[in-house]
């Protein structure tokens, strides 16, 4: 088993403003570990994580794949700084961009992303809550997902096909309430991407899934 | 640490700004040079993903003239060392990037580019 990245540099104050790795994060790490041989063997040249928060996931990926290009975005400026520090702490060279989803990279990264990661704000809330949480760049933006918990995820899903390289893979964290079969169906019918469940786990009240998508 | 590898991938994404929106122009910048681990396989694999002219022009603006105007077909160690330095070792810590088309200014703070747009600027 691979070690969880060292997060000992994050202070209590950091974790008041940035989502602290929890069961959903650890399930995503476990899914990446399931795919260890593929991820390492396919020699990805561009990895991109959307909403990297503490930076735990990309640091973990960096310890699987080794030296390559890692980009992370987050809408929360505190999260951007934490991601940068977590990369340093774990010897993974991460390029952090303060921004929404992949917007400033979409033009140039079209068909170039080999590993795309997204642990979205998936908790069903009111739609108003999402708007405020995102535009303020606060910690609430890490979980408030609006109607069905899918408001932000749906925007990202529409971008994935354009970003993935021919052999690229997209890993998504989802909750049972997000309608996992519906997400897989949407991706196939709207975007001709094939998806499957890599792992699922019950954690407290949450039934969590890790989905993996690639071109047909 | 906005390295030139990142700069080469960022474009203006403001509403209705769809042409001539790349590369962003550095302004009032502070540079730092930091050594990075040399990996020739990574560099060779990354070459086809670069917008070469944008990289060379930007490096020249920052005072580095080591890269040829055309991407060479045969790469030797000397070339890869220059490419490594330009892509991965030149860090922009502070300053800003301006869109050549709509003139939107994206600030760089503590090495992190702020690419957020206000609600009314989102396309």
What is the C-level CATH assignment of chain A?
Alpha Beta
* Largest interchain contact: A-B, 30 and 33 residues
Order of helices and strands of chain B: EHEHHHEEE
Termini separation of chain B comes to 27 Å
Strand content of chain B: 15-25%
Topology-level CATH name of chain B? N-terminal domain of TfIIb
Shape of chain B: globular
Cα Rg of chain B: 15 Å
Which strand order does the major sheet of chain A show? 3-2-1-4-5-7-6
CATH architecture of chain B: Single Sheet
Q: What is the count of DSSP helices of chain A, taking H or I runs of 4+ residues?
A: 8
Give the proportion of residues in helices of chain B: 25-40%
Q: Low-confidence parts of chain B, pLDDT < 50 over ≥5 residues?
A: none
Describe it.
The complex is a heterodimer of chains A (216) and B (123). Chain A is of the alpha/beta class and 216 residues long. Chain A is built from eight helices and seven strands. In chain A, α2 runs parallel beside α4. The longest helix of chain A is centred in the middle third of the chain and has 13 residues. The mean pLDDT of chain A is 96. In chain B, strands 1, 2, 3, 4 and 5 form a five-stranded antiparallel β-sheet that branches. Chain B has one domain: Single Sheet (N-terminal domain of TfIIb), CATH 2.20.25.10. Chain B is globular. The relative contact order of chain B is 0.30. Helices cover 28% and strands 22% of the residues of chain B. Classes of the chains: A alpha/beta (216), B alpha+beta (123). At the A-B interface, β2, α5 and β3 of A face β1, α2 and β5 of B.
């Amino acid at each position: 088993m691979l070690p969880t990245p060292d997060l000992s540099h994050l202070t209590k104050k950091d974790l008041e403003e940035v989502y602290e790795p929890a069961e959903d994060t650890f399930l995503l790490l476990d899914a990446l570990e399931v795919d260890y041989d593929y991820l390492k063997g396919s020699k990805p040249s561009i990895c991109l994580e959307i909403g990297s928060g503490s930076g735990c996931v990309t640091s973990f990926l960096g310890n699987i794949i080794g030296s390559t290009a890692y980009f992370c975005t987050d809408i929360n400026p505190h999260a951007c700084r934490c991601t940068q520090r977590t990369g340093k702490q774990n010897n993974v060279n991460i390029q952090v961009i303060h921004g929404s989803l992949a917007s400033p990279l979409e033009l140039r990264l079209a068909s170039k992303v080999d590993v795309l990661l997204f642990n979205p704000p998936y908790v069903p809330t009111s739609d108003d809550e999402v708007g405020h949480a995102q535009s303020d760049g606060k910690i609430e933006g890490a979980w408030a997902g609006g109607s069905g918990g899918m408001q932000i995820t749906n925007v990202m899903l529409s971008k994935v096909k354009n970003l993935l390289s021919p052999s690229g893979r997209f890993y998504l964290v989802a909750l049972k309430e997000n309608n996992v079969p519906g997400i897989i169906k949407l991706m196939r019918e709207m975007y001709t991407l094939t998806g499957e469940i890599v792992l699922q786990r019950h954690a407290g009240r949450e039934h969590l899934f890790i989905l993996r998508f690639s071109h047909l | 640490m906005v390295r030139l590898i990142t700069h080469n991938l960022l474009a203006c994404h403001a509403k209705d700004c769809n042409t001539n929106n790349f590369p962003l122009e550095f302004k009032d910048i502070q540079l730092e040079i930091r050594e990075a681990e040399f990996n020739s396989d990574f560099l060779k694999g990354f070459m086809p993903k670069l917008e070469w002219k944008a990289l060379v022009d930007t490096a020249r603006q920052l005072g580095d003239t080591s890269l040829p105007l055309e991407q060479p077909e045969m790469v030797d160690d000397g070339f890869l060392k220059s490419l490594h330095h330009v892509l991965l070792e030149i860090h922009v810590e502070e300053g800003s990037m301006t869109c050549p088309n709509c003139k939107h200014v994206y600030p760089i703070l503590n090495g992190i580019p702020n690419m957020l747009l206000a609600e009314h600027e989102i396309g």
